[in-house]
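User: I'm new to structure prediction. If I give you an amino acid sequence, what do you actually give back? Let's try with this one:
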Amino acid sequence: NPSSGKVLVLDSSKSVSVSFTAQPYNVSFEESGLSSGTSWYVTLNGVNKSSTTNTIIFSEYYGYYSYTIGSVSGYNSQGGSTKIMVQHGPESILVEYTKQPEPHLYNVSITQSGLPSGTSWSVTLNGVNKSSTTNTITFSEYNGTYSYSIQSVNGYSRTLKSGSISVNGQS
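Assistant: Good question. You get back a string of structure tokens that encode the predicted 3D arrangement of the chain. For your 171 residues, that looks like this:
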């Protein structure tokens, strides 16, 4: 500043003072893959910004900057931390999110034998109690390990009272 002007030199030397100031550039993070209105965030050079639109913009000067892409529940992203060099103009970084697959429910069936047809019996699995007058009681569970207990039936003894069962990718 000034970027231009005139200097009149008559019979002595003249000097013109010019000062330079650094110009910031936009550093844009553009997300794709999130459901409309989903909040996401980026931390650049220690400054955290969030948005529910697909763009987050920072204003930075020439230099190297560290950034971190925030995690979003239910989505995967390239995430992590990395660096960017701001040099001669605006910079843009694409942040791609992909929806995580929904967990799958599997059938857990417990079958009894020895009771007369039509006799009520019950099982508690993972805190949920179910009764039946048929031979099989079925629950729906995600992958994991679950405790169960077989309730007593008057006049009959049980060979199994309680235990645990693991669900791992199949019924």
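You can read the tokens as a compact description of the fold. Here is one thing that stands out. The chain has a mean pLDDT of 89.
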